[in-house]
Write a structure and sequence with these properties.
267 residues, mainly alpha, 75% helix, globular
Length: 267
């Protein structure tokens, strides 16, 4: 059973990575499916960063056979796609169109995938050894608080929070993505251990790799009213990227749970 799921998840990761690339390149094949009008270039790059973050987190868990850590990713899906499905239905009721209905269906599929993944993975034990590094734990606490505040404000349609132009409807959609990320990192704090932390750092690195260059390119020309927002965002992206690189590649923390332990529970 786990072998089949592992192979399916690898395919799923590849699909997410391809969507990320398509949004980075802004291929009409995917941008024409996006339901919100007047979506700018930077918003498509932001969507790409979310796709690559999801792909990186899932790939890490599957590659290292940390199947229990997939529960955090499942919670992320539920927090993002559940409210987005409802919100998109409301938008479609006001202004019916085929693109929005396609988005509703896609969100509903995301909810179902999250429920199935949570049901399967939540019963798999997560090793607490080695523990979550202290620096990572401190950083995750800051990230959770910041994401809850920032995402909550975006859902409430507070304007001018992002360093690029975005509609209020788009702000609410993207805000739920930040809230989903907050729940994902909170889950890692509730069940600390490298089994969870590694996937979360991999996701952060994927997110950072997509955004760092566009943000740096924006810096010389951005307006004074948005400069502070951009600088704060750059600090978060650079610091989280360096943290991820250090623990994933330089220090190279490895989970101590053996494959035998991982296979001892087969839901």
């Amino acid at each position: 059973m786990r072998t089949i799921i592992r192979r399916l998840m690898f395919v799923y990761c590849a699909a997410q990575a391809l969507f990320a690339l398509a949004f980075i390149l802004q291929l009409p094949l995917v941008t024409n499916l996006w339901p919100l009008p007047y979506t700018g270039s930077m918003s498509f790059i932001f969507i790409a960063s979310m796709f690559l973050a999801a792909a990186a987190s899932t790939f890490w868990c599957i590659y290292y056979r940390e199947y229990g850590a997939l529960a955090g990713i499942a919670l992320d899906y539920l927090v993002i796609f559940g409210p987005l499905c409802i919100y998109a239905l409301q938008l479609n009721a006001d202004h019916p169109n085929s693109k929005m209905m396609f988005f509703v269906v896609a969100c509903a599929v995301g909810v179902i995938a999250g429920l199935v993944l949570l049901w399967w993975s939540i019963r798999i034990p997560i090793s607490q050894s080695p523990p979550m590094p202290r620096v990572a734990k401190f950083a995750f606490i800051i990230f959770v608080v910041a994401l809850l505040i920032f995402g909550g404000q975006m859902v409430l349609k507070v304007p001018n929070l992002l360093p690029w132009d975005i509609s209020l409807v788009g702000s609410a959609l993207y805000g739920w993505m930040f809230l989903g990320a907050a729940v994902y990192f909170l889950y890692g704090l509730i069940r600390p251990g490298w089994s969870n932390t590694g996937g979360q750092l991999a996701g952060f690195l994927g997110y950072d790799l997509v955004l760092i260059v566009p943000f740096l390119q924006m810096l010389p020309t951005i307006s004074a009213t948005r400069r502070t927002s951009l600088i704060i965002y750059l600090v978060v992206v650079i610091s989280s990227g360096l943290l991820s690189i250090y623990y994933l590649f330089l220090r190279r923390v490895k989970a101590s749970s053996s494959q035998a332990e991982l296979e001892s529970v087969k839901p």
